[in-house]
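User: Can you predict the 3D structure for this chain?
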Amino acid sequence: MKAARNGQNEERDRNARREPGAARRLVRAEGSVTEMLSTSQDRPDGLRERKKARTRAAIREHALRLFRENGYQQTTVEKIAEAAEVSPSTFFRYFPTKEDVILQDDMDTRMIEALEQQPPELGPIAAVRAATRQVFASYTEADLDVIRQTTALTMTVPEVRARAMDEFTRTIAVISEALAKRAGRPADDLAVRAAAGAIIGVIMSITMPWTGWSSDRQNIEDMFQRIDQALALLEAGLPL
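Assistant: Here is the predicted structure, written as structure tokens:
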């Protein structure tokens, strides 16, 4: 028996020597499996991020629908969570408050992406103006419908209006990070913070008058146009 096993081992060794390509194919196959495993290990993060994005979008979509159908005050976080098929604790992982489901959208993400695409020779305000125009041009009719609804809620619901001030503060930090990156400065640099604060202050001056406001499409378009005009004044040094 031992002699037979030794003979089989010698025959296998001779075959391996006669067919070196087989060994190479095995190595390549093993390498391919390793690469596949490595790639598959990279994928879960992307899948998780996409799942999070879908969950966040679903929560927001159901929330806005319930606000339309039942009113803001009558719609609880529990009802939103039930409609989106998540738990209330999951809702709060995505939105700290009920007001935030209205105020926190993807505009910051779109804006930062558009700002990063602007030519480096543009000054900070010129770059923000160009990015704002680019973002507005990217909006679909569905996007504008959501903007109309969320803006109307911000204008008419006191709790949302009060929370909007916190959101503006957060946006200053977001814009500061983006401007600092363009300028090669730290985000807490005085000039960077001042520029970001001035830009958001101009936007607030256009978007926050509460009286005489309507949510029709033309009014939304006019609002973006006024924002651009106000930023142009800031860029020119606010001549009076």
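The chain has two domains: 2-94, 100-235. The chain is about 80% helix and 0% strand.
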